[in-house]
Structures are given as C-alpha cells and as structure tokens.
Amino acid sequence: MTGGNKSSRPERLAFMAGLAVMGIAVLFLLGAGGIIVASVAGVLCLGMVAGGRSGIRAVRAGRWDRPGTWLSLGVACVATGVGGFSVAYLTGIFSGGLDVEEACVHGHGARYDEAFREAHAEEFNRWFPLHSKCNENFDLVPAWVNPAIVFFTLLAAIGVLCLAAAVMTALRTRRDR
Fold first, then answer.
1. How much is the pTM?
2. Which DSSP helix (H) or strand (E) runs through 119?
3. Which ranges does the record mark as transmembrane (predicted)?
C-alpha cells in the first residue's frame, strides 16, 4: 500500500460503518429526540476532531500568527468543553434517579436518612455543586462530576478566548495589508 492511497484502508471503512451503526441505534432508541441528540453530538465530535487536528498541525508548524490556528484551537476547545460539561452535568443530575431512596438503599446499599434530606433540601436543588446525598456520609453524585464540570467550563472559556484571538489576529492581518 502506498502512502498516498489512504482511502482504501479497510479500518477507515470499518470506523465509518461503526459510526453509522451507532448513529442509527441512537435514532431508534431515542425516537424523534434522537435526531437532535445525534446532530448535536455529531457537530461536537466533528468540532473536536477537525479543530483539534488542524490546530495541532498549525501549532507544530509554528503558525501562531494566523487566524486559522486560533480558530481551530477555539473550535476544538469549545466543542470539547461543551461535550464534556454536558456528559458530566447530566451524569450528576441523573445520579439519584427518579427515586433517591430506592437508589440509596437498593442500588448502593446505603442508609437513607429522610430527616437529613429534608434539612438540606436546598443544597440538593442547587445548580452547582451537584449533590444527591443519601445521608451525611454518602453522595450519589460521583466524586469526579463537580471537578469535571469546572474543568470543562474552563476549557470552553479558553476556547472562547481562542476564538477572540482568531478575530483579533484576522483584524490585525487585514489592517497590515
């Protein structure tokens, strides 16, 4: 196989077929909402992969003064930040399920303290940090969720700064012409 004949590699075809099968499965599992979920997930994945690859290539080539470098890095960071934030936040929100008592007792074998939950009800309804405690010692929200939310929010903010740098670089390049 020659270096220029990359399109005939069977693993690329298998990868694309696997993505297609997963996409069809999501559509069947989620129904009409699956189209929206699949579209958003596809756009985020495309932004992560395409932006990341072209941004890394531009950085390796030392093209910091070009708007495309900052645009690629910004798209990759924003897409990764939004995707990671969504996964972490949804994991935290749905960690208790519909019945917290059942999740505590039957799902995790933890004691359910109704008096503790009533005394701290305001804490469990906050947007951040996420908690769904069975008692004073056991939280249904995994320990990684809140730090991941902070990390992916910061990554998305860095992406927005990269996009601003792309605009500034483009304006500077245009002004210098």
1. 0.75
2. helix 114-119
3. 12-30, 36-56, 68-90, 148-171
